[in-house]
Amino acid sequence: RWSLDVAAERLATPELTAATIEITGGGAAADLDDPQKRRVDFTLSGGSRGLAFTDPALGTAVGGEATFSGSGRWTAGAPLAIDALKLATPTVEATFAGKVEDGRIEGRPVLKAASLAPFSGLAGRPLKGSADIAAEGTLTPLTGAFDLTLDGNAGDLSAGIAQLDGLLTGQTRLTGAIARHTDGLKFRALGVANPALTRPPDR
Q: What is the pTM of this model?
């Protein structure tokens, strides 16, 4: 078996500082001497307090601290399997389950924010409301490409745009798919519905 226990204080980079960082983990490892049979499973948890960013908008969005936990496994010749991954800050909670292979992430991410107001600085607009969005599909971080099917809800959305805000009161349901490839951004079967507005999915 293997174990990990890391603790650091007063971490500083050009973009952020952290008062404390803690990471613990462990798991089983087998057949490490055989390249064809190597396998490792893991459970990790940790967090950071006293987070401060040089970008004040990012600092407000993160909320000053973060915790994470995760578990998964890897076997030679197979993708990295992530059984459960969770990241939480005072402003947002994100979870993921899926796999990683050849630089491509495939699975189901879920994002929940009880209030969108902390993200106003990043958006450049006064945001209000809440969001609970699930997606399923693929993401390639190195190229920025993705192909995701969306299913989520938002409550009392507002972005400081009078013509739009009046249409987004109450609960809004979002369904459909969005993809970004070399030929640009594409939407498929995108549907938006709430008490004031209904946009049926494209066919």
A: 0.86
